[in-house]
Amino acid sequence: MATRKTPQKSNTSKEELLTFYREMLLIRRFEEKAGQLYGMGLIGGFCHLYIGQEAVVVGLEAATEEGDKRITSYRDHGHMLACGMDPKGVMAELTGREGGYSKGKGGSMHMFSKEKHFYGGHGIVGAQVPIGAGLAFADKYQENGRVTFVYFGDGAANQGQVAETYNMAELWDLPVIFVIENNQYAMGTAVKRATKSPDFWERGAAFGIKGEAVDGMDVLAVKAAGEKAVAHCRAGKGPYILEIMTYRYRGHSMSDPAKYRSREEVQKIREERDAIEHVRDLLLTGKHATEDELKEIDKQIKGVVNEAAEFAKESPEPALDELWTDIYADTAPQNA
Ligand SMILES: Cc1ncc(C[n+]2csc(CCOP(=O)(O)OP(=O)(O)O)c2C)c(N)n1
Ligand SMILES: [Mg+2]
Questions:
Q1: Which domains does the chain have, with CATH numbers?
Q2: Residues near 132 by Cβ (< 8 Å), separated by ≥ 6?
Q3: Atom of ligand 1 lying closest to residue 187 CA
Q4: Which stretches make up the Dehydrogenase E1 component domain (predicted)?
Q5: Rg (CA), the chain
Q6: Cβ neighbours of residue 131 closer than 8 Å, sequence gap 6 or more
Q7: What letter does residue 3 receive in the DSSP assignment?
Q8: How, if at all, do strands 210-215 and 189-190 pair?
Q9: Cβ–Cβ under 8 Å, residues 248 and 51
């Protein structure tokens, strides 16, 4: 993974750094707690943790405006927290309880929020890419100035439907940002084992779509790239591709024994590139916060996460007659 290049100190403020620190830490502590609840048998089925990738969503959300949309894969807890969804509702959904965003019927991979313009949560690899372009098509049609962020992985980026979507998105100048979260692996397959030309962002060139690679362990670099991409889309210039270089610290899902990489590889990135530690260093060396103040923030966030876990444990399982609801829409969708 590339070393950190972007000079950051000049383009930020104490408030912004503290916000990034809090938001990234919330995702990390939430995911650690989800891992524990899974281990205790309180979460079943699939559970894909986002630990290591926090700077991607936190940086990009900082470039959004009210009304912008987001859609992603099954590795979705961080996206929901970063766009302001309630940790209680997310945790309760993970544990399959009535208080969850999908009333306990969707689980980790299937949550939505109309209020926050979060369109899931998709278990089929790459499925969200054409759907996301569809959301952007609706925005263009309604001339509402909104931008859609479509997140997908390096594995998904090799799919045919991604190329088809690029073609149509550029043909129709759709206001969509394709965010490739390149965490170096698709399940147990390293990018170099599955990909002939590993610069995913360059593939837009075949369709005339601009793009760039971004250091995904540097939240300030991610935000800056997000702002550039958003400006491009809002100016009516069509789609943009951001390939964000990141890394997942945990297995693909909770059932992954992770035999395809060494512990040393993971440890080295954790020690040298961790995005939260980076912001922590900027806060401390810039004298924006003391060790004690940062400890206090960590304590507050653990409190929020513990409350979410308690809420999830106390919320009842959905009633049996809920099996027959939420299958078909009652009415045809109106303007989003
Ligand atoms: C169409 C389809 N094929 C295969 C799978 C099984 N599968 C689930 S995740 C995954 C790897 C995807 O990797 P990537 O796109 O890099 O995303 P990441 O998990 O790294 O976030 C595969 C093959 C699936 N869910 N859907
Ligand atoms: Mg991947």
A1: 13-316 (3.40.50.970)
A2: 69, 71, 119, 148, 149, 150, 165, 176
A3: 11
A4: 23-319
A5: 19
A6: 71, 119, 122
A7: P
A8: unpaired
A9: yes
pLDDT, tens digit, 9 for 90 and up, residues 89-119: 999 999 999 999 999 999 999 999 999 999 9
User: What pLDDT is attached to residue 8?
Assistant: 47
Q: Which ligand is nearest to the CA of 125?
A: 1
Q: 28: exposed, middle or buried (C-beta count within 10 Å: 0-12, 13-18, 19+)?
A: buried
Ligand 1 and 78: CB distance under 6 A: no
Angle between helices 291-314 and 87-94 in degrees, nearest 10: 50
- Inform me whether the pLDDT recorded for 6 exceeds 80: no
Query: What residues contact 273, with CB distance under 8 A and at least 6 apart?
Result: 1, 4, 217, 247
Amino acid, res. 225: A
- 155 touches ligand 1 (CB under 6 Å): yes
State the closest ligand 1 atom to the C-alpha of 127, by its place in the atom list counted from 1: 1
Best residue for ligand 1 mutational test, from 51, 125, 189 (most atoms within 8 Å of Cβ): 125
